[in-house]
Design brief:
single chain; mainly alpha; globular; binds iron/sulfur cluster
Length: 120
């Protein structure tokens, strides 16, 4: 059983062009790239004085692409996302992000993606 799982994993990694012998390296280009742009939704940066639902709003681009998007196309979520316009740039979320994300900038980008998705 274990052997077949490993063989499946190896076959999948080969299919996607990944080197199954190497393990993720913290210094790799891709991990650095990902670390700078993706919110993990940890919540350490809460509370937000503008009451922005940061854990979801900061991942909205991913949510729209990887979840049933219809649940976010509601007046409720439209209002929640537009709270981003009330961000005072107090810096609390940025200072408390364990991954060093520029959360306010990420939120503005997510609002822009949300709006574009909403229009189309
Ligand atoms: S910088 Fe903006 S999003 Fe971050 S905690 Fe302050 S008001 Fe909220």
């Amino acid at each position: 059983m274990c052997f077949s799982l490993n063989r499946d994993r190896k076959s999948q990694m080969t299919t996607y062009g990944l080197d199954c012998k190497s393990s993720p390296n913290k210094d790799s280009y891709h991990l650095k790239e990902l670390a700078g742009n993706i919110c993990r939704g940890c919540g350490y940066y809460l509370p937000c004085s503008a009451n922005i639902p940061i854990p979801m709003a900061a991942r909205m681009g991913l949510c729209l692409r990887r979840m049933p998007y219809q649940q976010f196309m509601t007046p409720h979520w439209h209002e929640m996302m537009h709270r981003i316009e009330s961000c005072t740039d107090c810096g609390h979320c940025r200072a408390n992000c364990p991954y060093g994300l520029d959360t306010p900038a990420l939120l503005r980008r997510m609002l822009s993606e949300y709006e574009e998705f909403f229009r189309n």
